[in-house]
Amino acid sequence: MTTTDIGTLAATLRAVLGAEHVITDRQELRTYECDGLAQYKVIPALVALPGTAAECAATVRACVDAGVPFVARGSGTGLSGGALPHADGVLVVTSRLRAIREVAPADERAVVEPGVINLQVTRAATPYGYYYAPDPSSQQICSIGGNVAENSGGAHCLKYGFTTNHVTGLEVVTPDGDLVRLGGRAPDPPGYDLLGAFVGSEGTLGIATEVTVRLVRLPESVRTLLAAFPSTDEAGAATSAVIAAGVVPAAIEMMDALAISAAEAAVRCGYPAGAGAVLIVELDGPAAEVDAQFAEVERLCRDNGAGEIRVAADDAERALIWKGRKSAFAAVGRISPDYIVQDGVIPRTALPEVLRRIAELAARRGVRVANVFHAGDGNLHPLVLFDDGVAGQAEQAEEVSGAILELCVEHGGSITGEHGVGMDKVTFMPRMFTDDDLDTMQLLRCAFDPRGLANPGKVFPTPRLCGEVPGRRRGAHPAQEAGLAELF
Amino acid sequence: MSGDVLAALRDAAGDADAVRPAGAGDAVAGVPARYRAAPGSTEAAAAVLRVAAAHGLAVVVAGGLTKQDWANPPRRLDLVVDTGRLTGVVEHAAGDLIVVVRAGTRLADLPARLAPAGQQLALDAPALPGGAGATVGGAVAVNTSGPRRMRYGTVRDLLIGITVVRPDGVVAHAGGKVVKNVAGYDLGKLFTGSYGTLGLITECAFRLHPLPAAGGYVRRPVDGEAEAGRLVAAVLGAQLVPSALEVHAPPDGGVEVAVLIEGTPSGVRERVAATRRLLGAAATASDTPPPWWPAYPWRMGDVGLKLTAALSGVPGLLTAARAAGRRHGIPVRVSGSAGTGVLYAGLPGAARPDAVARIVADLRAATAAAGGHAVVLTAPAAVRDRVDLWGPVGGLELMHRVKAQFDPDARFAPGRFVGGI
Ligand SMILES: Cc1cc2nc3c(=O)[nH]c(=O)nc-3n(C[C@H](O)[C@H](O)[C@H](O)COP(=O)(O)OP(=O)(O)OC[C@H]3O[C@@H](n4cnc5c(N)ncnc54)[C@H](O)[C@@H]3O)c2cc1C
Ligand SMILES: Cc1cc2nc3c(=O)[nH]c(=O)nc-3n(C[C@H](O)[C@H](O)[C@H](O)COP(=O)(O)OP(=O)(O)OC[C@H]3O[C@@H](n4cnc5c(N)ncnc54)[C@H](O)[C@@H]3O)c2cc1C
Vertex B120, ends B118 and B126: CA angle to 5°? Predict the structure, then answer.
């Protein structure tokens, strides 16, 4: 894209959005050069900050007319480079779309704009006795639009499900620039479940401009314990025993010795000294159920080798137990100059085997791996620690991190449980899916985005040619103009 | 020519017995077919569908055939693909709470496999006489759900992986067999409720739930729709966490509300008692469900509708449905999941089509006002001719584009689905 083209597009967008909401100054553009995966940086050609859904649609239409790719961005906390800008494209930022339109406890729904911060939804619903269940650790900063795009999870999704289970309606700007409503407050809208297909599509099927979410009744009782084990083997066995007993905890989280020591160094959470692993187990629901099951969980932890078990007596003690876990990612910064946050999934029963293999991998490459995971559903977050100052360590760490994903696939798991594919894991998609699988997924993409303008280069390693592009297309194929043509 | 096609299909299936000329009994909603194939594996099904593609055959997938009278009849039909030989559990990983099962497996066969491990596939659906043969693929394709959706969700919440054969005979997978997984598009969602219009589902992976140790029902007759609404709201606002919250409204008899509580024995005892207190003196508790639970409020040959609403709109919808029946002189029977905003309505099959059409119009207005939809699931031919079964659908243009990508020649169940898809 030439400077004149961008100049023309900028002029169009200024007329639509107002000059102050179109950024072309290089220094200002830098603010948006990366998301939470900061090793990749691209400066976008232009940043647009629409203030309404209609402005967002007009922005996309202007991109379509100019044949320019666009990338949506919420809070930029994504960990897979999903919101990494396109050098010749427009970054559409939702930070002005922050209104909570309605909290409707009688419908158990809230209607919000995409830039609304996850935790704000719960804050708005709490006075009515409700909350928004999906709780990514980034919930104080990440946006609902980003959550929708990533199908984000959280510690409590073991019992309550992921974003996809909590979104009942969307308004989206399609990659044609049309505003379309999918679903609403009522369940089961007729027709194909395009809402379900959109959630988790990482900004490649359009931009969400309004989200209707399910609100969940605040539980009557919440009980939390922290159990220390000699090693991750015992902690894993205790997790299995809890699940086998038919208990569905709100959360079961595990940390290994290295992760514990990092958390200790960072936030002094005071976890039992010398523990080889800790489990955090939280139960919630009607008091009559929680009390009976909590006693059972305590017993199962003891039977499986738990030493100290701490039971939170009140909210303050519960917060202290969670503090170590919630700070774990950032905390490893205290014990290592550099680290990679990995996100993979295994069948939970493969945990002991996979942890052993990870330890072997790390030892062979001379790096350390701290393990933090959502133990209930087998979602691993290995933190691969390295020192970029030591020649070759970054490469070793990358290799270990990649090999961990191979392990996940080998055990019938997934290359990502919640952080998404983005651009980071594009090359791993063929490990998990056949060419035909990827081709079939892209049929959906072709239906939504035949020009391939919505967040190109993400999720899929090779774009698919979509055949006839309906309407609004002019001149050469935009992918050609965007310099992607030789890929086909 | 047709002999050639038959031979090619047989060849593809790898088993001569798997393919035969269709008989009168293979007609789908009155539309006769030419061939019937029952492939025994995903690969054989793919080979059969490649032949079907080469010969431009129109295809309808048949599971247990319990819901072939749902939706519109296909515009044309050559080949019925029967999933009756695509059966069995591929994998039950009890420790991981998942099951992988072939699409032709009967739902009714799963408990024998899962219950010994204390687990369940938490899909229930209202029963119809003769419907016990419903298959996994059929339940996914039609997206049926029952009372316990309130606690466990529906197919879309439980399906974690899917294997399909596309109309061009290409085999594709999406999702996997772990519950938590965001790699790639969630094609399982796309195929859920697609009525066989995007391809053949051959295998599904589901998340399982532990069987609750105990359960109990509390029911109570109520004085009209308004009181039903008040009690439903009270149960939702309390701390009872029911697995189901149903309402039952026969055309002239009294309205009833019923609650299912599941959990630990002691917990259920306390919560059942609390539910009784909440519902008042007229409430009774029992270990068994009310006789009307869980059944669609219609019989074979009747008109059956699914009505949805935002939760706060449920009492109004119930009122409107019964009033529409009285206004047009037709008994309307309503029941469903008041706690999730899904109701079903049944009208006698003998009712005059024009009167049915007027009631459907009233119900469409009432559901639209409540933020939902009224879909005619099943109806006699005379009624189908008069009413649009699906009603208004949001995002229809995109749906046409999805269909055009998956099935460009419109060979899979043409005309069955929304907007003539
Ligand atoms: C410390 C930390 C902890 C984290 N913990 C978790 C966790 O526990 N669980 C978890 O799942 N994730 C976690 N994450 C990852 C991240 O927070 C989530 O993926 C989050 O949903 C991203 O939201 P965002 O608003 O920052 O989106 P961005 O990073 O801005 O964008 C993410 C993706 O969404 C797309 N997008 C954004 N807005 C829209 C929209 N309106 N319409 C369409 N597409 C859009 C973008 O194009 C991009 O592909 C964590 C991240 C950090 C930094
Ligand atoms: C325990 C239990 C009991 C049940 N009992 C009953 C009952 O007694 N009565 C009842 O009516 N329902 C019952 N159900 C509901 C059942 O889930 C649905 O009726 C089901 O949708 C019908 O399945 P079928 O195999 O009969 O489908 P069919 O009637 O054969 O097909 C229905 C539609 O799905 C499509 N389809 C079927 N299989 C596939 C496939 N593999 N791939 C793509 N498309 C396909 C067909 O083309 C058609 O459009 C029960 C459910 C459960 C869990």
Answer: 140
Atom of ligand 2 nearest to the CA of B111: 1
CA distance B7 to B5: 5
Q: Nearest by CB to A415, from B183, B213, B417: name it.
A: B183
**Which residue, among A118, A54, A47, has the nearest Cα to A83 in the 3D structure?**
A47
Which ligand 2 atom sits closest to the C-alpha of B68? 29
Which of A165, A417, A444 lies at the smallest CB-CB distance from B153? A165
pTM for this model (two decimals): 0.95
Distance from CA of A487 to the nearest CA of B (A): 20
Question: What integer pLDDT is reported at residue A487 of this predicted model?
Answer: 30
Cβ distance A193 to B189 less than 8 Å, yes or no, reads: yes
* pLDDT band at residue B66 under the 50/70/90 scheme: low
Which positions ≥6 away from B222 have C-beta within 8 Å?
B228, B231, B254, B255, B256, B257
Dihedral of CA atoms B281, B286, B292, B296 in degrees, nearest 10, equals: 110
Q: Is B134 in the pocket of ligand 2 (CB under 6 A)?
A: yes
In this structure, are residues B257 and B290 in contact, taking their beta carbons and an 8 Å threshold?
no
Measured from the Cβ of residue B184, the count of other Cβ atoms closer than 10 Å reads 27
Which atom of ligand 1 is the closest one to the Cα of A152? Answer: 11
Query: H or E stretch including A334?
Result: none
Is the distance from the beta carbon of residue A115 to the nearest atom of ligand 1 less than 6 Å?
Answer: no
Beta-carbon contacts of B93 under 8 Å, excluding residues fewer than 6 positions away, are A347, A349, B99, B177
- In angstroms, what CA-CA distances link B69 with A412, B162, B300, B304, B351? 38, 25, 9, 11, 18
> Quick check: CB of B120 below 6 Å from ligand 2?
no
C-beta of residue B144 within 8 angstroms of C-beta of residue B375: no
Quick check: B278 and B234 in contact, CB under 8 A? yes
| pLDDT digit string, tens, across residues A18-45 | 999 999 999 999 999 999 999 899 999 9
If 0-12 CB within 10 Å is exposed, 13-18 middle and 19+ buried, where does residue B96 land?
buried
- B101 C-beta neighbours (distance < 10 Å), count: 26
Note the pLDDT of residue A12.
Answer: 97
- CB-nearest to B418 from A191, A200, A420 is A191
SS3 of B71, please?
coil
Q: How far is CA A147 from CA A21, A123, A340, B46, in A?
A: 24, 17, 21, 36
Nearest CA to ligand 2 atom 27: B138
Query: Tens of pLDDT along A152-211?
Result: 999 899 999 999 999 999 999 999 999 999 999 999 999 999 999 999 999 999 999 999
**Is B63's C-beta closer than 6 angstroms to any atom of ligand 2?**
yes
**B266 is written with which tokens?**
């002691």
Q: Which residue of A189, A440, A459 is in closest CB contact with B373?
A: A189
Size of interface A-B (CB pairs under 8 A): 273
Q: How far apart are CA B203 and CA B164, in angstroms?
A: 7
Size (chain B), residues? 421
Whether the CB of A402 sits within 6 Å of ligand 1: no
Residue A186 Cα to ligand 2 midpoint, Å, equals 23
Report helix angle B42-54 to B2-13, nearest 10.
Answer: 160
Answer yes or no: is the C-beta of A142 below 6 A from any ligand 1 atom.
yes
Q: Kind and range of the H or E element at A278?
A: strand A277-285
Q: Judge: B178–A412 Cβ closer than 8 Å, yes or no.
A: yes
Tell me whether residues A285 and B241 touch, CB distance under 8 A: yes
Looking at the DSSP assignment, which residues form a beta bridge with residue B368?
none
Tokens of B10: 């047989």
Task: Tokens for A245, please give them.
Answer: 């007993």
- Atom in ligand 2 nearest the alpha carbon of residue B135: 25
Q: How many CA atoms lie within 13 A of A255 on its CB side?
A: 31
